[in-house]
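Reply to dn_fold:

You asked what the input looked like. This is it:
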Amino acid sequence: MSGYKRVFFPATAASATTPPAGKNLPYTGKPQELVTAGKASGGTMQYSLDGKTYSAELPTATDPGEYTIYYKVVSDASHVDSQAKTVTSTIAAKGDSTKAASTTKAASTTSASFSHVPREIACCGRGDATVCGAVGNVLLEHDQQARMRRHAQR
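and this is what came back:
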């Protein structure tokens, strides 16, 4: 083809016309959808909890905590994939019906085992131990809490 130039036009990126929205959910003990479904143009909206494996299924979770949900639009034949973005959702701590509070997985203790503890201080007795606080994801027993107060006063 003499006298002609081959010209390539870059494909347009697929896009989210309505991005998914994160939710603040109460604890139910059952799997719950973490986002409202987004709408896409030029492809299919897909979601991921790890940022690597995407699916068109809405992500679900059961345990209390804060979740980062990745989403992107996987393109059709005439577009390219959109860039991944994130939205955050929260499932409130068990028994917290007033708000969806951010929670974190707790470390196990030898005298009591808890799967999750709110970031706010929580006191509850169980057996021979009383857990009276949490710093980050570490449970504090009563005597540890007193030692930390003494150390902070120095």
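The first strand starts at residue 12 and ends at 13.
Hope that clears it up.
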